[in-house]
Design goal:
It is a single chain. With 381 residues, the protein is of the alpha/beta class. It contains 14 helices and 11 strands. It has a domain at 38-251: Spore Coat Polysaccharide Biosynthesis Protein SpsA, Chain A, CATH 3.90.550. The chain has helices spanning 2-27, 53-61, 82-91, 109-120, 139-143, 166-185, 204-209, 222-231, 253-270, 272-276, 283-292, 296-316, 320-324, 329-344; strands at residues 40-45, 68-74, 96-101, 125-128, 152-163, 200-203, 236-248, 348-351, 354-358, 364-366, 378-379.
């Protein structure tokens, strides 16, 4: 057993070193210079009034880019975000910004809105990002450049997270110290179909060839499924050097836990092989086991590597708060391991106001009944 533990600890250490290399490479990335600036349609599905929503949508209206349009879609004109969208339109008369009513029904309500937005989009390049994403003024100029290459089918961006509550800040730290490093490592181990809801940029023609948004309307992980289809023809998913920002609105620890478990179950049904191997990235867990097994040197090496990796992650994302909290990374690993265990059980989730079942391939099957007592196998967003 000791030999097996040493082997697993060595794998965990190797992952930390690989993640550090990926973070350093990302930190050193420089934007490509190009005059490639095709017209872009920004598609933003909106549901509810997220914290910092006004700031997020205003950052899109302030882009230094020759020709683009912003289409903000809602499933209902009674959505609480509608007044903020109308203010944005009134404040920017020189911009092409439209509020689109998109009542298209779909198991994944966000994709139903995207289907409606795509019908209204006028330009050959489409950009999709979540409603709470804030972007820098040169965002469009930089994220579209890789599409000048015919071998690139998709551009995506990593993100840093901010939050107001203590629980939300804990989740934001985990995104920086755990999730984003794993995203940067993915291409190094041969994962091609990665794409994040923080930014997806692609050609309209490629979307149509992949079956449109309709092809992913039944799936919970629409960003992953879309990336998978856009790269199936042999084209690459390109990770931009741009870092965008999101604001987490989870108010308390229970909400954060449920959100994390729902996220874990989403990964499990989307990439089961990758999900099964996630514990090897939890160096804090292996350090604790090494300490319990009387291997203090191994535990110290794991802890040092884990903390260093978390520190680098904060630097790579220009997130000084995460770097300052890097010493908490081993504790995050214990939390993440508990989430991983919880993610294996149950396939019922609350998704955008209704309960659904997750199938083994990641599809959503809405439940007709209103579940009064969902129990422990429900992961709330």
């Amino acid at each position: 057993m000791t030999t097996l533990l040493i082997v697993l600890a060595a794998i965990a250490l190797a992952y930390q070193l690989m993640a550090m290399a990926a973070l350093l490479a990302f930190r050193l990335k420089r934007p490509g210079s190009s005059r490639y600036s095709p017209p872009i349609s920004i598609l933003k599905p909106v549901r509810g009034l997220d914290e910092d929503f006004d700031e997020a949508i205003r950052s899109h209206a302030a882009q230094d880019y020759p020709e683009y349009e912003i289409l903000l879609g809602v499933a209902s004109l009674d959505d609480p975000a509608v007044p903020a969208i109308r203010r944005l339109i009134a404040e920017n008369p020189g911009r092409t910004i439209r509020l689109i009513h998109c009542p298209t029904p779909a198991p994944n309500g966000k994709v139903g809105v995207l289907i409606g937005l795509a019908r209204e989009a006028r330009h050959p390049i489409l950009l999709v990002n979540d409603s709470d994403i804030s972007v820098p003024p040169d965002y469009l100029r930089r994220v579209v450049v890789p599409l000048r290459r015919p071998d690139v089918g998709l551009v995506t961006c990593v993100y840093r997270a901010a939050a107001s509550s203590l629980a939300g800040r804990w989740e934001a730290f985990g995104i920086a110290a755990d999730f984003i490093p794993s995203t940067l490592v993915a291409p190094m181990v041969g994962v091609r179909e990665f794409g994040l809801g923080s930014t997806l940029v692609f050609r309209r023609a490629d979307l149509d060839a992949a079956g449109g948004f309709e092809a992913v309307a039944e799936y919970i992980a629409d960003d992953y499924q879309l990336a998978k289809r856009l790269t199936q023809s042999g084209r690459k998913a390109h990770l931009s050097e741009v870092v965008v920002e999101t604001h987490l609105s989870d108010p308390d620890w229970r909400a954060v836990w449920r959100h994390q478990v729902r996220w874990a179950r989403t990964i499990r049904v989307s990439r089961g092989d990758g999900y099964a191997g996630l514990p090897v990235t939890h160096a804090g867990l292996w350090a604790l086991l090494c300490l319990a097994a009387g291997l203090p040197a191994h535990a110290l090496a794991l802890l040092a590597a884990r903390i260093a990796m978390a520190f680098l992650a904060g630097l790579a994302l220009a997130n000084p708060r995460s770097s300052a909290l890097c010493f908490l990374a081993p504790l995050w690993d214990l939390w993440a391991c508990a989430v991983w265990v919880a993610g294996w059980s149950g396939n019922k989730i609350e998704w955008r106001g209704g309960f659904s079942l997750l199938t083994s391939d990641g599809r959503l099957q809405p439940l007709a009944e209103n579940v009064a007592n969902p129990g422990q196998d429900v992961a709330l967003p």
